[in-house]
Design a protein that fits this description.
- The protein folds into four domains: 76 residues; 114 residues, Beta-Lactamase; 89 residues, Signal transduction histidine kinase, dimerisation/phosphotransfer (DHp) domain (Helix Hairpins); 164 residues, Histidine kinase-like ATPase, C-terminal domain (Heat Shock Protein 90).
- Helix 1 runs antiparallel to helix 4 and helix 2 runs antiparallel to helix 3.
- The strands form three sheets. It has a five-stranded antiparallel beta sheet, covered by helices on one side. Strands 7-9-10-12-11 form a five-stranded mixed beta sheet.
- The longest helix is centred in the middle third of the chain and has 51 residues.
- It is built from ten helices and twelve strands.
- By secondary structure, the protein is α+β, with helices and mostly antiparallel strands.
- A hairpin with a 4-residue loop joins strand 1 and strand 2.
Length: 477
């Protein structure tokens, strides 16, 4: 397969070859139609005719052998045909009588003029070519006829005499320039492409180098895109490794517990009803924990893949936050935390009420875990243009700025000491909550400062383009 450099060289060579051929054809056409050759022939014809007539003006006898020899010499030197004709039509001398057809008075237009700028006329000999001729008057009612065949330019002659050498020279020079130029261009273009190819091969081997963008703008953009792809692949692979590690870590504790108690039962170590009840309780709790983990992972995967089913219908957000308050009121009183709801005049949104209730439950549960006794959690809903805004604000310790985005990653725990304990989460609640909000074409983020508490903000549009019918039903309800 030809390399890019060879293809570039061939393309430049072909381009220059076509341009050279076009120029040659154009030049040839102009030469074939050029009157320059005819002009030089007619000027020579006038000049020789005038000079010969001037020399013959002083000769007493125009029919002497001496005159004929002089005319023969002049005809040979000028490569013209000289003839003397009297007014009766008799040809007394013709330098081309043996080579060309005889001149006839009827072929000529007899209107001689004694001037340098005498007219050049033409006549055609039957079955022969066209001739140029000039007439000059001579003493004794004679006429000097100076004539020559009209020059013919042939394609072969022009190529051989005029163009073949320059064409070969210019063509060779053009190919040389094409080679030099294509060598420079191919190196300029091929080098970053070779770098991209090597980078792609490194990615296939599991290495992810950062390539330096260079070359034309398109290749520069391609290099940046490949760098972005490399970073995304690295991030994806790291996320897969983290996911496997986190799942293994989260499953290790319940599996170990279940395995230990089941082995104790099989070995007969646990025999009393109380011990058996305790073992069964631990095994049930740990199996429920594994079930929640697998269920949460499946839910998160469906949401991220866009295949989770949303049962969209009109949802009253004020009712939603009051339901969350009622659900967590007992837990709030036990934790010594005040749970407050601030209703707002907002129309219903179109969404999945159960999924949105899951989001609120996760955020309120997290707020209760991190808000100290005597603290306060506030749930509010407002309308801002075409968007509904829900806020869950707490008076907890706050979240550092560099971790505010990471808390939405899978298995990420802000408080590492809480990880893996009984009844503790595994770091999937916030990622699931964000994906549910995104499935509603909304967004979820946190606003927090250390020591100032945290505010989780949910922003959801009231109506999507395909929710017009549902929205009309909500307004009519």
């Amino acid at each position: 397969m030809p390399s890019l450099r060879n293809r570039l060289w061939l393309s430049y060579a072909a381009l220059i070859g076509v341009l050279s051929l076009t120029v040659a054809v154009t030049l040839l056409w102009s030469l074939l139609r050029s009157p320059l050759l005819y002009r030089s022939t007619t000027q020579q014809l006038r000049l020789i005719s005038a000079l010969t007539a001037r020399r013959l003006q002083s000769q007493p006898d125009l029919q002497s052998e001496k005159i004929y020899r002089q005319l023969d010499l002049a005809a040979q030197e000028s490569d013209l045909r000289l003839a003397i004709i009297n007014l009766s039509g008799q040809v007394t001398y013709d330098s081309g009588a043996e080579q060309y057809p005889a001149l006839r008075l009827t072929d000529l237009t007899l209107s001689p003029v004694v001037q340098m700028d005498v007219p050049v006329r033409t006549f055609r000999v039957p079955q022969s070519r066209v001739w140029f001729y000039v007439l000059q008057p001579l003493p004794g009612d004679y006429i000097l006829v100076t004539t020559t065949p009209r020059p013919q330019q042939t394609l072969r002659g022009i190529l051989r005499d005029e163009m073949l050498g320059p064409l070969f020279f210019s063509g060779g020079l053009a190919l040389l320039l094409a080679f030099i130029f294509s060598a420079f261009m191919s190196r300029w273009i091929a080098r970053p492409l070779q770098q991209l190819a090597e980078g792609a091969r490194s990615m296939a081997r599991g290495q992810y180098p950062i390539l330096t963008p260079s070359g034309p703008r398109e290749i520069f953009d391609l290099t940046q895109s490949l760098n972005d792809l490399s970073q995304q692949v690295q991030t994806s692979q790291q996320a897969q490794r983290d996911l496997i590690g986190n799942i293994s870590h989260e499953l290790k504790t319940p599996i170990t517990a279940i395995q230990g108690f089941s082995q104790a039962i099989l070995d007969g170590t646990v025999t009393s009803p109380a011990a058996l009840q305790e073992a069964a309780t631990v095994m049930s709790v740990e199996s429920d924990r594994m079930h929640r983990l697998v269920s949460d992972l499946l839910t998160l995967t469906r949401l991220e893949g866009g295949i989770a089913d949303l049962h969209r219908a009109p949802v009253d957000l004020n009712a939603l936050i009051h339901h969350a308050q009622a659900r967590f009121s007992l837990q709030a009183r036990q934790s010594g935390v005040e749970l407050v709801v601030l209703s707002g005049a907002v129309p219903p949104i179109i969404g999945d009420g159960d999924r949105l209730s899951q989001v609120l439950a996760n955020l309120v549960d997290n707020a209760l875990k991190y808000t100290p006794p005597g603290g306060k959690i506030t749930l509010s809903v407002t309308a801002e243009g075409d968007w509904a805004i829900l806020r869950i604000a707490d008076t907890g310790p706050g979240i550092p700025a560099d971790e505010q985005e990471r808390i939405f990653e899978r298995f990420y725990q802000l408080d590492k000491s809480r990880r893996g304990g009984s009844g503790r989460g595994v770091g999937l609640g916030l990622p699931i909550a964000r994906e549910i909000v995104r499935a509603h074409s909304g967004s979820l983020w946190v606003e927090s400062s250390p020591g100032q508490g945290s505010i989780f903000v949910i922003k959801i549009p009231f109506v999507l383009p395909d929710d017009i019918t549902l929205n009309q039903k909500a307004n009519n309800a």
